[in-house]
């Protein structure tokens, strides 16, 4: 299945603005993040505390609905889903 | 309501929203948390627009490395308190308004006192721990919080209306680490200007606000995106302070 990944702020500099990814049917948000991390070291370092553990402040949305990176990484993705990933910007 | 000088000073705005609208701004009191990059843009435009009372708070002194973006402060101000420097600049821009500049660190203990008499909270902080204090205070007092933040070429903004929208904690449940962030003055210009425009529309009661919308600015590609924000029914801040029933009531209106 094909899903769309949209990155914002510093994640956009690493992943690009948006890309389509081919995933196996039944893949989860966690699987998607693993694919991104395994193909992009900068993303892995920026988004993950340690392998498999996303940094707690990373914001994730599926079809514009925010999901909790601690609880919902097992959520199944579907054909055409749009996944947004962004770090909060904090400076002033 | 407006004197002759004010009618002349604000004549281009009065074309937009009339003397009544200008009088509403004159009655409004804004609390600006921070006199740095965002606080500079926010306070300068609020002062120029004629918000009747501005209380700006910052505990730091002006450093040379601030001057690329903190346009409230000039080269001669290096070493002075940011609060005093801010007061001088803002009073120079508009002597018709009341400017209070306080050299304080915002805390859970003093936030109530700092906000007294203000009906708008402008977020110009550089860290989320203080932003969460502003968020809770906005919820408790049921006054809006105009959030903005920047890093390098990127920025974000959203407007929190207690009882109606997601709060800041719903959108950003956990704080990113505090770092020395890269900063371009013009990014502060974009985001601070959006925050002021939001505050103007809120006070005047028209236009569409960034309610439940997080606006994301990317200066590098010169693009603006937005993502939807949703209330988290289990939010530790707004659920506890306002209660889900009140949100349901508001949603059913």
Describe the protein in words.
The complex is a heterodimer of chains A (92) and B (253). Chain A has 92 residues and is α+β, with helices and mostly antiparallel strands. Chain A has one domain (2-86): Beta-grasp domain (Ubiquitin-like (UB roll), Roll). Chain A is 27% helix and 30% strand. Chain A contains three helices and seven strands. In chain A, the strands form two sheets. A five-stranded mixed beta sheet of chain A has the order 2-1-7-5-6. Chain A has a two-stranded antiparallel ribbon with strand order 3-4. The model of chain A has no long low-confidence stretch (mean pLDDT 92). With 253 residues, chain B is an alpha/beta fold. Chain B has one domain: NAD(P)-binding Rossmann-like Domain (Rossmann fold), CATH 3.40.50. Chain B has helices at 4-9, 11-27, 37-49, 82-93, 111-115, 128-141, 168-171, 185-204, 238-241, 244-252; strands at 29-33, 53-57, 98-102, 120-123, 145-151, 154-160, 213-218, 223-228. The longest helix of chain B has 20 residues, at 185-204. Chain B is globular and about 50 Å long. The interface between A and B is medium-sized, with 23 and 42 residues.
Provide a compact summary of the structure:
The complex is a heterodimer of chains A (92) and B (253). Chain A is of the alpha+beta class and 92 residues long.
Topology:
The complex is a heterodimer of chains A (92) and B (253).
Chain A: E1 2-7, H1 9-15, E2 18-22, H2 29-39, H3 41-47, E3 48-50, E4 53-54, E5 59-62, E6 65-67, E7 82-86
Helix pairs in contact in A: 2-3
Chain B: H1 4-9, H2 11-27, E1 29-33, H3 37-49, E2 53-57, H4 82-93, E3 98-102, H5 111-115, E4 120-123, H6 128-141, E5 145-151, E6 154-160, H7 168-171, H8 185-204, E7 213-218, E8 223-228, H9 238-241, H10 244-252
Parallel strand pairs in B: 1-2, 1-4, 2-3, 4-5
Antiparallel strand pairs in B: 5-6, 6-7, 7-8
Helix pairs in contact in B: 3-4, 3-8
């Amino acid at each position: 299945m094909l899903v769309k990944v949209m990155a914002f702020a510093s994640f956009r500099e690493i992943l690009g603005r948006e890309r389509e990814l081919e995933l196996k049917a039944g893949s989860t948000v966690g699987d998607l993040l693993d694919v991104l991390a395994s193909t992009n070291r900068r993303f892995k370092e920026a988004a993950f505390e340690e392998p498999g553990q996303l940094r707690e402040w990373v914001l994730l949305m599926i079809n514009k609905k925010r999901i909790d990176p601690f609880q919902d990484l097992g959520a199944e993705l579907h054909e055409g889903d749009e996944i947004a990933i962004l770090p909060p910007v904090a400076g002033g | 309501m407006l004197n002759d000088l004010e009618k002349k000073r604000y004549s281009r705005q009065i074309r937009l929203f009339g003397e009544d609208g200008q009088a509403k701004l004159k009655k409004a009191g804004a609390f600006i948390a921070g006199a740095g990059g965002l606080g500079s843009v926010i306070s300068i435009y609020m002062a120029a627009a004629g918000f009747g009372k501005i209380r700006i708070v910052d505990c730091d002194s002006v450093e040379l490395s601030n001057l690329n973006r903190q346009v409230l402060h000039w080269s001669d101000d290096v070493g002075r308190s940011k609060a005093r420097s801010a007061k001088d600049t803002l009073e120079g821009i508009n002597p018709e308004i009341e400017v209070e500049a306080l050299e304080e660190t915002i805390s859970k203990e003093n936030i109530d006192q700092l906000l007294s008499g203000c009906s708008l909270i402008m977020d110009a902080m550089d860290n989320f721990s203080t932003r969460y204090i502003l968020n809770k205070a906005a919820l408790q007092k049921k006054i809006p919080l105009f959030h903005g933040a920047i890093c390098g070429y990127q920025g974000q903004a959203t407007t929190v209306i207690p009882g109606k929208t997601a709060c800041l904690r719903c959108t950003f449940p956990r704080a990113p680490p505090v770092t020395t962030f890269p900063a371009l003055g013009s990014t502060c210009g974009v985001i601070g200007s959006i925050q002021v425009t939001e505050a103007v529309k809120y006070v005047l009661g028209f236009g569409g606000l960034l309610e439940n919308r997080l606006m994301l600015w990317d200066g590098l590609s010169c693009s603006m995106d937005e993502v939807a924000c949703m209330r988290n029914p289990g939010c530790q801040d707004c659920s506890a302070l306002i209660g889900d029933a009140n949100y349901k009531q508001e949603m059913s209106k």
